[in-house]
# Entry
Amino acid sequence: MDPNGDYLFRIRTVKAAPIRTLSEALKEILTEANIEIDQNGLKIMAMDGTHTVLVHLRLHADRFDEYKCPQKYILGINMINLFKLVKTMSNNDSLVMFMERRDTTKMGIVILNGEKQMETTFNLNLIELDINPIEIPPVQFSAIITMPSLDFQKIIRDMSTLGETVEITSASNQLILKCRGDFAEQETIFSVGQGMSVSKSHTEIVQGNFLLKHLVLFTKCTSLCSDISIYLKNDYPIIIEYSVAGLGEIKLALAPAPSKQSHTGNAKS
# Structure
């Protein structure tokens, strides 16, 4: 591509593999989304089709190797099609995204491999999506847990083979995950230490039930960072935050699961 071309925006990063991982995770949650790009960075704020998952992604302009975007643009993207284009990116690739002034109906994607002296260019058709701003009021969470992302992934995947929901509790200096299925029950307790820390604004016990099928999708972001932050508050969505390989962060919020009468002692009407 011509570095001196007439571009409305042009951004480049050597962290192509994390972008591939991010797009793979997003396509499982959001079929389509508006990407807002301006001089400060890229942002996605969108809910999934079930209106139980909220995605808040922010990639910061100063974390990219090159970033030029003097004005704000909103790009309607089919996330499944985007992943089809970037899924072959490797750790040795660089990624360039751009829009040419002469054609604002497409977003350009260039995958560069310096070792092989290879350059592949795609032009992704943009789609028109409704713009529905989502405002989130400030919230003080009762507990914020930091723990290894791999540990969280393993427990969520294991529990998803047992049942549909997981009960997540923060009590004292422990994080307790319980799952009850037709043939077995599982309880896993994480205590402070061994890579886990807890910050609490209240001494109350924080507890919620959440659908495992959504949390399993969240864990597709695991390879983006070594540690995650879990935000908990009673009667409020759980938020899992991943760092996007130093480029920014993605927060994935999941509403509590609908209560079932079979949940002993924890059912909420």
